[in-house]
Specification:
The protein is mainly alpha-helical. It is built from 4 helices and 2 strands. The radius of gyration is 28 Å and the shape is elongated.
């Protein structure tokens, strides 16, 4: 394809086929190692493939891949699917609509609160104070932090 000065690097294959309604369809491809019927199936299911990729981008929030090898992409997609399934399980039984983004935010707040509370309890113990009797309940979108936080400042000396 192309003029003699600007010729394409790849060799192409031109297929003339009939679609499911009997209309003629022309397909130009650089896939040369597959049978024509397989290429026609790929063309037929192209929108299904696009929908799957759109779902991966929107629902699993995979915008880019960490690695580009087949193993790296598979692992990243599997991890995203596992997280999505855990979010669905966490949300089951709730009456509000399912929003993975909102659930991730709530889980991040809860995790930050738990880490803060663990550090707060440890700081009280190190300061010689009794541990808190119970952890205050975390209200949605609100962090009720204790008023006094005993802490120890450690200075690091660099040379």
């Amino acid at each position: 394809m192309g003029s003699p000065e600007n010729r394409a690097r790849h060799r192409y294959r031109f297929l003339k086929v009939l679609d499911s309604k009997g209309n003629p369809l022309q397909i130009l491809t650089n896939i040369r190692n597959l049978a024509a019927w397989k290429i026609c199936l790929l063309y037929r299911y192209r929108w299904t493939i696009e929908i799957v990729f759109r779902w991966i981008k929107r629902s699993l929030q995979v915008k880019s891949f960490v690695g580009y090898s087949a193993t790296a992409v598979q692992r990243q997609l599997l991890m995203a699917l596992i997280v999505y399934c855990l979010l669905v399980l966490y949300h089951s039984g709730q009456k509000r609509p399912f929003s993975p983004t909102q659930l991730l935010r709530e889980l991040q707040i809860a995790l930050a609160w738990l880490l803060y509370w663990a550090g707060y309890t440890q700081a009280r113990l190190e300061a010689g104070l009794p541990p808190p009797k119970e952890m205050p309940k975390l209200e949605a979108r609100q962090l009720a932090l204790p008023k006094e936080v005993p802490c120890r400042v450690t200075l690091l000396q660099t040379t």
